[in-house]
Design brief:
The protein has 343 residues and is an alpha+beta fold. 32% of the residues are buried. The chain has eight helices and 19 strands. It has two domains: 15-32 and 106-341, Pseudouridine synthase (2-Layer Sandwich), CATH 3.30.2350.10; 38-100, RNA-binding S4 domain (Structural Genomics Hypothetical 15.5 Kd Protein In mrcA-pckA Intergenic Region, Chain A, Roll).
Length: 343
């Protein structure tokens, strides 16, 4: 039997205040979803006229220009309410574009969701890695929101953000007002991350503003630096080291986009498997262009970003009770730690 991974007591058991069991369901447990996906946008002023297919490929990059030509010829794109069948239709700016994207093939996801708590106002879910929360890009039905709405037969509203490749606890409410109340009642979030290098012992605190990295090839990439425009603070505490990697607890004191990932990168301990904030700055673009190849896996070491939302505490906005929801360390983490200890 392999040696156990010894964690602080807060992570040794799954301890919930109200619910002591949890339910797991998979995508195949849910009836096929027939949701219509209509995307609309107002085309901004253009410096020069553009062909419709070229504009769509630049605006919605998850389909190639050839794929957009097929969508247009199939009658799925309209301009100002009129179906546009010619990919060479010229755009001057100001037109209202609508696209029926209901039928595009979505990437496979890990949909093994576990429900850790639910009541009439909210649900707490242990989200697997490689599952987006919101519809975006190619993802529409293959999202946490879509799966839960199919399960419950009603709308759900995430109370806070969690990235697609991040696993762990996320809270969702059954109406917008409850989601706002839930967001305001959050007390503390805790994450676990596997990082490159021997992280310093004891507790450290990174107080470094965030902003968009204007020098990065990827537009959405953020950067932690003194010139950032958004205050961001994260505390870190090493749990263990195994060879050339460390398991670190992360406590974000502010809730900025990509905060933990950018702070660890700026500290010199990037998250293992992170395609955007890891050691290889070209990994994300290579993934977008060629998918997750065998060569890319060797560079990244792990198939996804090793960041896990391990616990969250909040005051229930309606029952007025302190709630603590925790998610166990994923098998990917424990297997990797054992493999590094064996080297």
């Amino acid at each position: 039997m392999p040696d156990p991974i010894r964690l602080p007591s807060a992570f040794q058991t799954i301890d919930f205040l109200i619910l002591t069991r949890y339910t797991i369901f998979k995508m195949e447990d849910i009836s096929p979803m027939k949701r219509q996906r209509i995307i609309t946008c107002r085309i901004p002023p253009l410096e020069s006229v553009q062909c419709l297919d070229r504009y769509c490929a630049g605006r919605f990059t998850y389909l190639s220009q050839d794929e957009w030509r097929k969508e247009i010829i199939a009658g799925k794109v309209s301009l100002d309410g009129v179906v546009a069948l010619d990919p060479a239709t010229t755009l001057r700016g100001g037109e209202k574009l609508a696209w029926d994207g209901s039928g595009i093939v979505e990437p496979e996801v890990d949909a093994k969701i576990s429900i850790h708590y639910e009541d009439e106002w909210l649900v707490a879910v242990n989200k697997p890695g490689n599952l987006p929360v919101h519809p975006a890009g190619r993802y529409f039905n293959h999202t946490l929101v879509a799966l839960l709405e199919e399960r419950y037969g009603r709308k759900v509203y995430p109370a806070h953000r969690i990235d697609r490749e991040t696993s762990g606890v996320i809270l969702l409410a059954f109406d917008g007002k409850s989601a706002r109340c839930l967001c305001e009642s959050l007390r503390r979030k805790e994450y676990l991350s596997l990082v490159h290098g021997d992280f310093p012992d004891g507790e450290s605190r990174v107080d470094l503003p965030l902003g968009y990295d204007l020098e990065a090839a990827v537009r959405k990439k953020r950067k932690a630096w003194p010139g950032g425009t958004e205050r961001a603070v994260t505390r870190f505490r090493k749990v263990l080291a195994a060879g050339d990697i460390s398991l670190v607890r992360c406590f974000p004191e502010t809730g900025r986009l990509h905060q933990i990932r950018a702070h660890l990168m700026a500290s010199g301990y990037p998250i293992i498997g992170d395609k955007l904030y890891g050691r290889d700055e070209n990994a994300f673009l290579d993934f977008v262009r060629h998918g997750f190849t065998e060569e890319l896996q060797k560079r990244l070491i792990l198939p996804r970003s090793a960041l896990h939302a391990a616990g969250i505490s909040f005051l229930h906005p309606f029952r007025k009770k302190e709630m603590r929801i925790r998610a166990p360390l994923p098998k990917m983490f424990t297997d990797f730690i054992r493999s590094r200890r064996a080297i």
